[in-house]
Write a structure and sequence with these properties.
six-stranded mixed β-sheet; alpha/beta; 7 helices
Length: 246
């Protein structure tokens, strides 16, 4: 006989078909389209990127009608990744993941073009001015590096690094491995707004990210299983307390 007092299994929480976040965390209804963007945008997401609650790649893509989001590890060429022919990959920028940092290079400006040696390139204005699109790698630091090494066609792209004036808005919710590390949507805000000389792009994307973080913090109080708090580091023992991420 069945136990009438047994708790019924909880119904699964539906996900948004666009951002793929659980519906309580979705802010798609507040996304403001960014019109007449000159630059193309290609987002390559590592298939093991699982932080859907705090991830920003799909939210970013929602803002641009022509943004391309691909999930995978490798593509034969930039054209194959985009699904359309590209004559010159050097006219596309890729956010470089090497050891070069703008602060160490004493570089000026928020967007810095590098040469093949990882040094500040000459003719910054000319190199940045000819760009037709931007490639962003979405995932943890190690996942993004795997995407870099598995797609040698990126060597043909123009390498750029960012010199952000402020740290990521993630704050304590998600620790970045480097002080200059930004979320995917913040990186897009900086590079697209800077290259197109359109501060409205940065304002729109950063405001969207702020709404996402605000929603996350609100859900933390009511549904912590959807929006867990980050593990707390025990300074006395040098370990982290809390559940481990699978």
């Amino acid at each position: 006989m069945s136990n009438p007092t047994a708790a019924a299994p909880a119904e699964p929480i539906p996900e948004c078909p666009h951002c793929q976040k659980p519906m309580p965390l979705c802010i798609c209804d507040s996304v403001i389209p960014i019109e007449k963007s000159r630059l193309g945008l290609l987002i390559l997401q590592h298939p093991q990127e699982q932080d859907r609650a705090l991830g920003t790649a799909r939210l970013l893509a929602r803002h641009f009608a022509k943004a391309t989001l691909r999930v995978g590890l490798s593509w034969p060429s930039l054209s194959k990744a985009l699904g359309q022919p590209i004559e010159n990959a050097s006219h596309w920028a890729v956010l470089y993941l090497g050891s070069a940092r703008a602060a160490d290079l004493e570089a000026e400006g928020e967007i810095v073009a590098l040469n093949r040696k990882g040094e500040v390139a000459d003719n910054q204005r000319a190199l940045l001015g000819k760009l037709e699109g931007v490639v962003l790698l979405d995932g943890t630091w190690s996942q993004a590096k795997a995407l870099w090494w598995r797609n040698p066609w990126m060597l043909k792209c123009q390498r750029v690094i960012l010199n952000p004036a402020h740290p990521s808005r993630y704050g304590r919710l998600r620790k970045e491995p480097r002080k200059d590390g930004l979320s995917t949507i913040e990186a897009a805000a900086a590079i697209l707004a800077g290259l197109e000389k359109r501060p409205d792009i940065a304002q729109t994307l950063n405001a969207s990210f702020e709404r996402m973080l605000t929603r996350y913090r609100e859900v933390q109080a009511e549904m912590p299983e959807l929006a867990p708090k980050p593990p707390v580091k025990d300074r006395r023992r040098g370990v982290r307390r809390g559940k481990k991420r699978a």
